[in-house]
Amino acid sequence: MMERTDANLQAQLDEIDGLRCIYSEHELEVQEVAQGGFKIDATLPLEGIASGAECFAGPVHLSLRVPAAYPTEGLCLCSLLVEGVSPSSPSLCSLKESVAACIAGLPLGEEVIFMAITEAISLCNDASQRLLMDAKADNDASPNAPSPVTPIYTRCSAFVLFHHIKSSTKRRHLQQWAAEHGLSGFSRPGTPGVLFVQGEQHGLDLYLKRVRSMHWKKMSVMWYDEQQSASPNDMPPPLFPSFTERMCDLIELLPDFKRGNIEHVFWDGTKIPNTSDGPS
Is the pLDDT of residue 30 over 80? Predict the structure, then answer.
């Protein structure tokens, strides 16, 4: 077994500090263990699950072992429990195997605790939705069955203004994390810095928490909007097909906001005086 080094310990402490900026003390508990390393217990809800259905209603209780040599040595899944589901349930046992395999496959030498937690919750959500669909199929086969609850998809959009975006590390994280959470939009480095993101609500909210954890001179969410539908397919296309970094003057961003009929978001968000007579 590899030994802990000062560099390993500092990397672990820095990553744990970042996690504490993302999760509340009720959602995340960290304990140092006698053998070295840490034990991380996360308690998180599942998204969009109909109550009373034969599925994983949550919350999920996830326990991870961070070995002394992490991130040189990989994480380990200690336990996975879902409230209201028997620990011996075949569905839960299968889910634990999938989560353990996912965590074991995360890259070494990188900060992956947050990724491990989000991937585990994503797998739990996927498993729960499959069970929900099975339950729906059973209901549809029964003439007296009540109508199933339709899951709600929520797409959110956010416009964020920074005093500045200059750090190459922060610029890289803005793009990398947006890809991890399936978000589209752009970041505009410079003074002031601008960020516009769109995507599924849970992922977007987690993204903004991660961005805020990087400690900015000033970061203000100037606009936050929600749209709901039964599925992503019922939504209009996102304003941007992917997430990119835009090296341009602020005013050059305006046509994209006009195209999305949210020109007011640009003027209000950037605080640039609008000297035009009206939308053109």
Answer: yes
